[in-house]
Amino acid sequence: MSPQRGPNLPYKLVAGVTPVRKKWLVASAKMAGSTFAPEDPKLYDTFREVVDMRPPFSLIVVNAPIGYREDNSKGPRLCDLEARAMLDKRGRFLRRAPTRETLQRGYATPDDHLNAITLMLMPVFVEVFNEMSAYRQRTVYEGTPELSFFQLNGEQPLLYSKHTIEGREERWSLLTKRINGIERVLDAQIKGVSGEHLTDAAMLLVTARRVLAHAAKRIPLHPEWDSEGLRMELVF
Question: Among the residues of 132-194, which ranges form H helices?
């Protein structure tokens, strides 16, 4: 992968990105050698603003589907099925990705079998769908916080929902014990952004660091490709 940065910059920028209603929360960090320096997270109005940042991010992990079934005839993507199996009981909280047909339409029908959260996030998922191309996937990867926390937790599913006090403490403890400086993301105060959003973005940022360092895993090991040349995979 060729970094998309000017030759005079002494660092690379990586980002974890997650939707917050109709906006995008970006947790970024500068990387130079073994140095990993998180920055203050920011909220952006559109996904295009994120991918068009200047200077650009060298690598982004986004909590949104990339790579799509044409329609519902073949069922869920293999990456989603493998992630659910790995996460055991917590796998039921993973979304089912909308199909290309649904995203081109711009709205879902009951036949799409999408859960309430996916239905709510359809407008931002359409944004990603419209921006993605095979070339863009050189730097933009799909992740999900639940799977990334699975990796950080020694490849064991977490015990608690992120919507509970115990779940927030479980995730916060894992991040702060393993990632120096991540409190800059977790402790940020942004109007309309919850602690859960900040925790998700922080975890995806850690995964972005792993991908750039060639230390991340992906599922499936040999990904499926959609009709437009996008890989259907999850990184963690």
Answer: 145-152, 165-178, 183-186
